[in-house]
Design brief:
Elements (H helix, E strand, L loop, with lengths): L1 E5 L7 E6 L5 H12 L3 H7 L7 E5 L7 E6 L6 H15 L6 E5 L9 H10 L23 E5 L5 H26 L7 H15 L2 E5 L1 H7 L2 H7 L8 E7 L5 H8 L14 E6 L1 E5 L19 H15 L5 E11 L11 E2 L7 E2 L7 H16 L3 E6 L3 H7 L4 E5 L2 H14 L3 E3 L17 E2 L8 H10 L8 E5 L5 E2 L8 E2 L4 H9 L1
Parallel strand pairs: 1-6, 2-4, 2-5, 5-6, 9-11, 9-14, 10-11, 13-17, 14-18, 15-16
Antiparallel strand pairs: 3-4, 7-8, 8-11, 12-13, 15-18, 19-20
């Protein structure tokens, strides 16, 4: 699909008028009534511009076949534009012709063109990529598809930029949703590594992948311990950097010719991202129930968010120094699998008593956090993980848990989450919970014996491995990376965190 920004009337015979329920609604409906040759009173009676409300009108004047009125509700936020337009285009894409006009000028919606285009482009994504039947692309999303967006004359240049960014973000979000939705036999640690390498080659950031032998040489013992039960798909440790910098020679042979990237301003913040990359989680010896184990293909949602943010930072040429680290493994049941009661070493040199092998995400994150802190000393560290069921119990499926040792960072992320719709809710990181992770036989244990505050004690465990870093945030996205929606019959990927992190980096 091509998107054209114009200040003139479009040639499309199908037109969409998005409208806000505000004091100008009656006036705007009167203008539309004249445009389509209908009564203003009837339109005002039949259409109230409620969120996702749709009214289809059939052409009453020559050259116009169909008009859609699309409601945006009262005082829509940026994320509301994404939701409304994704829903409309997803549910109507088989009905829409190859050429569609979208009039933003009348309601003065040009400032939200990035979010509008983002929602429209996300509507193309379909979950069932492994179905055997032939997939037919909707006309509007095909090669000949054309979306003509009418804006005010003074919005032409800014509109073009908004379209480019909205498309870029949606493209990467769709790639991450495809990755998270992929089943276990199509997605394992090496596949995550290949995704990172391909993305780095295309968009211009360094990638270094450590195999199990190299992980052992590095001292990534906690990661390797979790991966012991997976004999066919061993662990991988993925390190990415944008712009291409200190990884340099390590990755050049792997990546081949690099895409050029802009130099980072000297005073730019160095941001470190760590994502949990468990490509399938059986729970190990502490095995999960079978009821929802199939959904554990999504246990690499944190890794997906980091991969997406890395790709978009490079794609959008953001003026930031970004490091991404993904410890990746399967957590399987085998004779070699990690056993409860074992004491294992870690990259930080600290020992860990394993109480429960299903608390594996924090083990691999411990190595990832220690590694990024020691080798890169980022100004900011953010980790993301589908970590605890306790976080879902606390917050349900409306928000991810945020735990941070820095109020300014926490507040910034909370604000951005409201903007992008990837909502966060802050939980305490008080030392009142610290003793719950004490071990008699090791430096720390991986699970509290008390059946309470699981999301918080998990964060206290991770805090133990950041080596005193004072600007760190942990996002427990267990309830948000994979869930129910109108876009699939079963739970599916959301790409939660991709736009959140990208917006954080853009700011």
């Amino acid at each position: 699909m091509k998107i054209k920004i114009t200040a003139n009337n479009t040639a499309a015979k199908t037109i969409i008028f998005p409208l806000v329920d505000n004091e100008k609604l009656a006036e705007n409906l009167s203008k539309i009534a004249k445009h389509v040759g209908l009564s203003a009173e009837i339109l005002q009676q039949d259409f109230k511009a409620g969120t996702k409300e749709t009214l289809a009108l059939y052409g009453a004047i020559e050259g116009l076949e169909k008009v859609y009125l699309l409601g945006l509700g009262k005082s829509p936020k940026p994320i509301d534009y994404v939701k409304v337009f994704r829903s409309f285009f997803y549910n109507n894409k088989k009905k829409l012709p190859s050429n569609v006009g979208l009039k933003l000028k009348m309601a003065g919606l040009e400032a939200n063109i990035e979010q509008i285009v983002n929602g429209i482009c996300l509507a193309e994504y379909e979950v069932g990529i492994y179905k055997s039947d032939e997939k037919k692309t909707a006309d509007i999303f095909g090669e000949s598809g054309l979306l003509e967006i009418q804006v005010a004359e003074n919005w032409l240049e800014k509109g073009e930029k908004g379209v480019a960014v909205g498309q870029a973000i949606a493209e990467t979000q769709s790639r991450i949703m495809t990755l998270v939705d992929a089943p276990a036999n199509y997605k394992y640690p090496q596949k995550l590594a290949e995704f990172a390498i391909e993305s780095g080659q295309k968009y211009g950031f360094d990638v270094k992948v450590y195999d199990e032998k190299q992980c052992l040489e590095l001292g990534l013992h906690a990661l390797l311990a979790v991966g012991r039960g997976s004999t066919e798909n061993p662990a991988r440790f993925i390190v990415m950097e944008y712009p291409s910098a200190t990884l340099g020679n390590q990755s050049s042979a792997m990546l081949g010719e690099q895409v050029s990237s802009k130099p980072v301003p000297e005073r730019s913040r160095r941001v470190g991202l760590v994502g949990k990359g468990v490509t399938f989680d059986t729970g190990g010896i502490s095995i999960k129930s079978s009821a929802s184990m199939s959904y554990m293909k999504s246990d690499m949602g944190g890794a997906g968010a980091v991969l997406g943010a890395m790709e978009l930072a490079a794609k959008l040429q953001l003026p930031v120094h970004l490091i991404g680290v993904i410890p990746s493994t399967e957590n399987c049941v085998d004779g070699n699998a990690l056993k409860p009661s074992e004491v294992i070493p870690s990259y930080a040199g600290k020992t860990i008593e394993v109480i429960d092998t299903d608390a594996e995400g924090r083990l691999i994150l411990a190595d990832g956090l220690s590694y990024i802190k020691k080798n890169f000393e980022p100004d900011v560290i953010i980790d993301l993980a589908t970590l605890t069921g306790n976080c879902i119990a606390a917050l349900g499926y409306a928000a991810a848990g945020l735990l941070s040792n820095n109020d300014a960072l926490a507040n910034e992320l909370l604000e951005i989450g409201q903007e992008t719709g990837e909502k966060l809710w802050r939980l305490p990181l008080w030392d009142d919970y610290k003793d719950m992770m004490n071990s008699d036989v090791a430096d720390i244990k991986n699970l509290s014996s008390a059946p309470v505050a699981g999301a918080i004690t998990a964060a206290k465990f991770l805090e133990f491995f950041i080596d005193g870093h004072t600007n760190w945030a942990h996002l427990d996205i267990a309830g948000m990376a994979f869930g129910d929606s109108e876009f699939a019959k079963m739970k599916s990927a959301t790409a939660f965190g991709v736009n959140l992190l990208t917006t954080f980096l853009r700011k």
